[in-house]
Design brief:
Shape: globular
Distance between the termini: 49 Å
Number of domains: 3
Number of strands: 23
Structural class: alpha/beta
CATH class of the largest domain: Alpha Beta
Number of helices: 20
Helix content: 25-40%
Strand order of the largest sheet: 15-23-22-16-17-21-18-20-19
Radius of gyration: 23 Å
CATH topology of the largest domain: DHBP synthase
CATH architecture of the largest domain: Alpha-Beta Complex
Strand content: 15-25%
Low-confidence stretches: none
Mean pLDDT: 93
């Protein structure tokens, strides 16, 4: 049984493949197109999945797309007739709906088929796909479920319950109310206009104080039923519509906030304007209000599940808002949940897996797949491929064994070197997890400046993350948890902060990745060797890229290495050093 899952005609387009219940591959289209958050029909990702399993499109039995144009359709029409003043918005949404409905024609055209697909096509509602991507891939037999993002199929939030291979939806929040839209609107207000810039507000927030909470609670309001609503006058999307364009398949969203928000908070910051303390205070307030609403909903969900099942169940959570690692790190401190699973791609990219699993488990009634405990689900390249590429480009290299590679890397890191680390399959999702990573010494106070000067060239307020050997998490962090996908920010113990300044944010926190030997033995061994030499069981880990999607192929890794000032590039067991450095 071959099931292809896709997220298409939406930001973070992606594809995955299930073969007889095994997740063979999952990858975002951006990794091939080299455009962040690429949106459209993910043809390269689909072809990569088919190639990985040596299949043709005619071998696929089921295709699951994580959009359902029929979902909440009556609500969409009713709201459109009552509220929207912009007919262009309605036409745009109908055009996007038509693309999803005609998905078979896109396959026929892309693969030059002379007849209809053999595969049965399933439209799986966006937020159901999110829930499935978390629960059906988790290690839990039973769990409370939450999906929360901007919008998808006219909903922004779903609360549910999972048991075995079944998912039940308890409650939903529909258009125009959305935590994700609240956060995005304020992200735009603060002068970060690009699709996906919300993480910049999250990084900026610790530099401010939550002085504007009272004002922002007029915009996002927690309701007595355990849910929330937005005050619509501060937004454009419910009455005027918000224009979404796909310029070269890069998603762009027009201004969401209205003039009323500027009356409440003052003039919006332009992208080129200075970031003042006031802007930092607004960022801190946005983050705090967002967190409080998430905890409000989660406590309501826990109470509802506890009442119905009599159990304290774990939490499975997905959706764009579930990428807010700062909020995730506070869930155990502010809710009744004490165990959770958030997949490596909680974003819309992950809905391709959710849609495929929903078809496999719920529609077809098959047993659950092996839990997804590692994020390396993408492309893999042979050593022969790497050697031929380097030889063709006349790049000097050495082939070494694991222990030699690790020893040389650790020596370089301890001397202030920056290492590009390319190993095994690429990661699925937005985080580098030790397969496509740039590494540095977390003990160096100047490591952040070195990385930004040599490679990243990003805003100074954005932190870098620590990859920590799993058995040492409790020694360095105030909370002890397994965090394999870098999805939670925890407070670093005060006595340890001066030891690891490069990964300690201004508020004393770090976005943790706990590294388990079972999930990534080679990366674990590298960090362990660094620990034996330095006494510090972690490395600074940031994504292998330079203002682009994370590198996917050895060619892209080499190009990034050559145009930046990285000191060393590791491609499996192949070592490349900067010109002038002896190898």
């Amino acid at each position: 049984m071959n099931i292809l899952g896709i997220n298409a005609f939406h930001g973070d387009s992606s594809a995955c493949l299930l073969v007889d219940g095994k997740l063979v591959m999952a990858i975002e289209e951006e990794r091939f197109k080299r455009i962040k958050h690429w949106a459209g029909f993910p043809i390269d990702a689909i072809q990569a999945c088919l190639s990985e399993a040596d299949l043709k499109i005619t071998d696929i039995d089921h295709i699951a797309i994580s959009r359902d144009p029929k979902a909440n359709f009556n609500l969409k029409i009713l709201h459109g007739l009552k509220s929207l003043k912009n007919p262009k918005y309605l036409l745009q949404r109908l055009a996007n709906r038509k693309k999803v409905q005609s998905i078979e024609q896109h396959f026929i055209s892309a693969f030059e088929l002379k007849k209809n697909l053999k595969a049965q096509i399933h439209n799986v509602e966006h937020h159901i796909s999110h829930l499935a991507s978390a629960f059906l891939a988790s290690p839990f037999e039973e769990a409370a479920l939450l999906s929360v993002d901007g919008f998808g199929d006219f909903s922004s939030t779903l609360l549910g319950y999972g048991k075995g291979s079944q998912i039940s939806v308890y409650e939903k929040v529909t258009f125009p109310h959305s935590i994700g839209v609240f956060y995005t609107a304020l992200t735009q207000y603060l002068g970060f206009p690009n699709y996906g810039d919300e993480y910049k507000v999250m990084g900026l927030a610790p530099y401010g104080k939550p002085e504007m909470v009272i004002e922002l609670k007029k915009i996002l309001i927690n309701t007595l039923d355990g849910l929330f609503k937005i005050e619509e006058k501060y937004f454009k999307h419910s009455t005027q519509g918000v224009q979404m364009s796909w310029n070269n398949c890069y998603p762009e969203i027009s201004q969401i906030f209205s003039s009323q928000m500027e009356k409440l908070l003052g003039p919006a910051r332009k992208k080129q304007d200075e970031l003042t303390q006031y802007h930092k205070d607004i960022a801190a307030s946005v983050q705090k209000v967002c967190e409080e609403t998430i905890f409000h909903v989660l406590n309501h969900l826990h109470a509802k599940i506890k009442t119905q099942t009599g159990k304290d169940l774990p939490l499975c959570m997905a959706g764009g808002v579930a990428q807010n690692s700062v909020a995730n790190g506070k869930i155990y401190l502010n809710t009744a949940f004490k165990n959770s699973y958030i997949p490596p791609a909680a974003t819309d990219a992950g809905t391709c897996i959710g849609a495929a699993l929903y078809v496999h488990n719920v529609i077809l009634g098959n047993p659950r797949v092996t839990p997804m405990l590692s994020g390396n689900l993408g492309s893999k390249f042979s050593e022969q491929y790497i050697l031929q590429m380097l030889e063709a480009k006349k790049v000097p290299f050495k082939k070494l064994n694991d222990s030699e590679i690790i020893h040389i890397c650790v020596e370089s890191l301890c001397e202030g070197g920056v290492v590009g680390w390319f190993h095994d399959r690429s990661e699925f999702g937005p985080r580098a997890l030790g397969f496509r990573s740039i590494l540095a010494d977390p003990r160096r106070a100047d490591a952040k400046d070195i990385l930004n000067e040599k490679i990243k060239r990003r805003e100074s307020f954005r932190p870098f993350a620590p990859s920590v050997l799993i058995e040492f998490v409790d020694e360095f962090f105030e909370q002890n948890d397994q965090v394999p996908f870098m999805e939670k920010v925890f407070v670093i113990r005060p006595e340890k902060r001066s030891l690891i300044p490069a990964v300690t944010h201004i508020d004393g926190t770090g976005r943790l990745q706990s590294v388990d030997k079972k999930a990534n033995e080679r990366y674990y061994n590298l960090i362990h060797h660094f620990y034996l030499k330095t006494g510090v069981p972690m490395l600074l880990n940031t994504s292998f890229n330079e203002n682009e999607p994370i590198v996917n192929s050895p060619n892209e890794a080499l190009d990034c290495f050559l145009r930046t000032k990285m000191d060393m590039l590791v491609l499996g067991n192949i070592l490349v050093k900067r010109a002038g450095i002896d190898i």
